[in-house]
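Slides due. Your pick:
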Amino acid sequence: MAARADAAGAGTDAPVALPLPLSGGAHPPGPPWEGTTPPGAEVVIDSVGKVFRRGGRRTVALAGASLRVRAGELVSLLGPSGCGKSTLLRIIAGALPADEGSVTVGGRPVTGPSPDRGMLFQTPMLFGWLTTRDNILFGPRAQRARGSARRHERDDPELAEEAAALLDRVGLAGFGEAFPHELSGGMQHRAAFARALAARPSLLLMDEPFGALDAITRERMHEFLLDIWDQHRITIIFVTHDIEEAILLGDRVAVMGGRPPGIGEIIDIPLARPRHALDADTEAFLAAKRRIRASLRN
């Protein structure tokens, strides 16, 4: 049963978002849904820097990082360990203050965490004492308990209906009353994804979420992610150290590294949507891979 559920989520048609300059100049043509209100938020990262200080030591974790992500775009942050990928993601999430520069999401400065910005980690981070359904509803219920007046607040019947719809959407319709230890690795990741979607974020930040999965489950999760992104059009920033994963998922790949660490090159991925694992054998994919490898060496 777990294997059948893990296979859910094949990709569907999705347009390719084009590169967007950080500032100045004419914007390139937008994606086909431009002219309507996309559910994702534009993200502007402008000259962001971060220094960690401990015991008299000063470590530059990030310097001069700049990137603009179009609303509804999926961008990969790629680089080796220690290049500032996770630090930048935490700054965008509002979990870590920047020492220099600024970040705006949907035109609003990031000054702290917000339910409009969801985050997924390498481990699903599900609450072991809650069922899958209650894990999904944890965020909306917590917002209500705090007296949140957000525009997305829903009453109990609506929350229950939405939880059922999300469970069905991520292929877990028969597992709402299951506890995390009763789910496979891929199913736990999909439950975590549903929990993030329940808060209706405009931006989803993903920090190597599939890094601990086996190759087969990871491939299925790639298809699942692309399918969900196509349906919801949330802006996604995806951190990875895997070149092929970055190419397969991203409209663009921001290559990070150097000393001090930062964003070195932003590479457009000229692959049509939908994308599948077999695309890794195409000449366009291999050309993108060679270019990214060269960028990482430089």
